[in-house]
Structure formats: C-alpha cells, structure tokens
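Look over this record as teaching material.
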Amino acid sequence: MGVPRFGVHARLYAGSWPAASLAEQWTGADDAFEGHVSLLTDGRRLLVTSAEGELLLVDLTGNDYRLISRLPLLGDDAEVLSHPALVDRKLFVRDGGSVICVALE
C-alpha cells in the first residue's frame, strides 16, 4: 500500500503514491476547491481552509468523498492565501485584514 496523498485542482483528489505510480482513490467536488486551499490531516480527517475563509472537514476513512462539516470563518470579501497555523488545538487563519482563532474540539 502506498503513502496517502491529497491535492486540489478544481476538485479534491485522494490517492496513494507507491514508487511506480500515482493511484487515484477518489475525488470530491466543491466550490471551495476552485481557488487556493490549505490542507491539514491527521490521517483520518482532512481540514481544508479555502481562499474564501471557509473550513471544510472531510472524512478520510471511507472509499469516497464525504464532507463532515463546513464552517464559514470570514466575510464575503475574504481572501486567505496563507497557510493556517495550528497551536495547541487552536487554528489561526489570516486574511488581508484580520486573524481569527478557532478552537478545534
């Protein structure tokens, strides 16, 4: 079995990468994947921060795309282009004018 890999190009792609090839496991569609995103995972879930300031939590335990939850963090004019910071179960997300802290429970 290969190492799990995730990527975004208009869709979320999950697959494994053995030495010889990249095998796609599943893809997921969502408007949040149309722009820049940042990805964090613990191996069971994937936390996606979108350029529009949304958090998406994706279940990785199944064989297909399953969105667990979605949380809008910033206003309609937000543009998040930096990677979020994770400190002691707190996620810090920054756009051009503000920083928000979300407790991950």
Notes: The two ends are 31 Å apart (CA to CA). The chain has a mean pLDDT of 86.
